[in-house]
Design goal:
Length: 177
């Protein structure tokens, strides 16, 4: 993006933050730096919400469902950020993230793996597959919903959560199912 086209966006960010141009440019020398910081903050906040849901439930089934439903509520409440995060390939997002955000993202997935392992997951299939089975259908639905929002996101949340549970239940201890 050209510097001239970047100025209105930077001015808006600067005004909302209540900082000077110098301060903004000091912390975020480029638009990509600023975008990376926004993405990193959004991911950290969203992942913290998901981990909270995961640990708040006592039964595995309830935790799996709560994570799906919380994810969909986050999409509905944060449409612009959700469009950004759900429209980019994971590798594209990782390239623009600062090192602390990448570290926080790894920690998030370490927490998810720990939760799964404590409930019987053996590491197979790999965590990327488990995460895709868990949230993939909800993300797929959310992408379509973001393109044409209606009331359906809340009405399908229970169905998507049930589907996630059916996908994950065979990977966990029988007593958790």
């Amino acid at each position: 993006m050209s510097a001239a086209r970047d100025r209105p966006a930077r001015a808006t960010v600067r005004q909302r933050a209540g900082v000077s141009n110098g301060t903004l440019f000091h912390h975020f020398p480029s638009r990509d730096d600023l975008a990376g910081a926004v993405i990193a903050a959004a991911m950290r906040a969203h992942q913290a919400e998901l981990v909270t849901e995961l640990h708040a439930a006592t039964a595995s089934r309830d935790a799996v469902a709560a994570v799906v439903q919380r994810h969909l509520r986050w999409v509905a409440d944060n449409r612009r950020l959700a469009r950004l995060l759900l429209s980019a390939a994971p590798q594209t997002l990782r390239v623009g993230l600062p090192a602390p955000a990448l570290s926080a993202n790894r920690e998030f997935f370490t927490q998810i793996a720990g939760w799964l392992t404590a409930r019987g997951w053996t590491g197979s299939p790999p965590l990327t597959v488990v995460a895709s089975l868990w949230l993939g259908p909800a993300q797929y639905y959310a992408r379509g919903w973001l393109a044409d929002p209606d009331d359906s996101l809340h009405t399908v949340a229970a169905d998507l959560a049930a589907g996630a549970w059916h996908a994950l239940a065979p990977l966990l201890h029988p007593e958790d199912t």
